[in-house]
Design brief:
There is one protein chain. With about 190 residues, the protein is of the alpha+beta class. It folds into two domains: about 1-70, Winged helix-like DNA-binding domain superfamily/Winged helix DNA-binding domain (Arc Repressor Mutant, subunit A), CATH 1.10.10; about 85-160, Orthogonal Bundle (Arc Repressor Mutant, subunit A). The chain is about 40% helix and about 10% strand. It contains nine helices and four strands. It has helices spanning about 1-15, 20-25, 35-45, 70, 85-95, 100-105, 115-120, 145-150, 160-165; strands at about 50-55, 60-65, 125-130, 140. It has a two-stranded antiparallel sheet. It has a two-stranded antiparallel sheet with strand order 3-4. Helix 1 (about 1-15) packs across helix 3 and helix 5 (about 85-95) crosses helix 7. The radius of gyration is 25 Å and the shape is globular.
């Protein structure tokens, strides 16, 4: 078991992308239970500065959440996506596969090619084929890098749309008056 843990640890450490159980099963001895190895490794790393987490359909080392704020002081963070890119990415995530026209209809505004290019360059979206309609527009979908970037293991882990809606504040009931207010003194 120790040797299997060492192999799994090395593979995950060396990989820039989450390592799937399938890849691990090809590298580990046949008689080893990949889930047991990964559970044991995750327990070993739980109290450390890096944690082994299941994300994007595989396993990856991530900075421990309690240590992350300290690193922000010295580690340069990648630049944030512009609002239009985040909106576009959200639409693609929830409605995939979808076309540029679908995105524009949902957003209610035109979509610049630069926005799609930015999402493509960051590896967050990818073409998923073409719609069988006139002009055969490209269908867009998210990538495993999208899942990893947002700490998701599967698209089913996205918050449901209902959870994203803001509930209006409940109306506060009028205070009950037990005694009439006192009359002002003359």
């Amino acid at each position: 078991m120790i040797e299997a843990e060492r192999i799994a640890e090395a593979v995950i450490f060396a990989s820039a992308q989450p390592v799937t159980a399938r890849v691990l099963s090809q590298l580990l001895p046949d008689d080893v239970d990949v889930t047991a190895v990964m559970t044991a490794l995750a327990e070993i790393y739980a109290p450390r500065g890096v944690n082994l987490v299941e994300v994007g359909g595989g396993w990856q080392f991530r900075t421990a959440p309690d240590v992350a704020p300290l690193l922000r002081k010295v580690v340069e963070l990648p630049r944030r996506l512009p609002r239009v890119a985040m909106e576009t990415l959200s639409i693609i995530a929830y409605h995939q596969p979808c076309t540029r026209t679908d995105i524009e209809e949902i957003r209610g505004a035109a979509l610049s090619q630069n926005t799609l290019d930015l999402l493509l360059e960051n590896g967050l979206v990818t073409p998923k084929g073409r719609r069988e309609t006139p002009g055969r527009p490209t269908l867009w979908g998210t990538t495993p890098a999208f899942l990893a970037q947002f700490g998701l293991n599967d698209l089913r882990d996205l918050p449901r749309r209902e959870e994203l809606l803001i509930d209006p504040l409940p109306a506060t009931p009028a205070p009950e008056l037990t005694d009439p207010p006192p009359e002002p003194a003359p």
